[in-house]
Design brief:
two-stranded antiparallel sheet, 2 strands, elongated
Length: about 50
């Protein structure tokens, strides 16, 4: 499904603009696994700290 929305900078802002609870929207996070790029899915309400 594709959801159109106004410009937003966080997945929570996208969920709010689309009228969807943040816990029901997923975001894609790019990570490295064993040195190779990979995509992981996470609930938009999850705050990720790469620090």
């Amino acid at each position: 499904m594709t959801i159109s929305h106004s410009p937003a900078y966080t997945s929570q802002e996208i969920a709010e603009a689309a009228g969807i609870p943040g816990k029901e929207l997923a975001k894609t996070v790019l990570v490295k696994l064993d040195g190779a790029p990979a995509m992981a899915g996470a609930p938009s309400s999850l705050e990720i700290d790469f620090g």
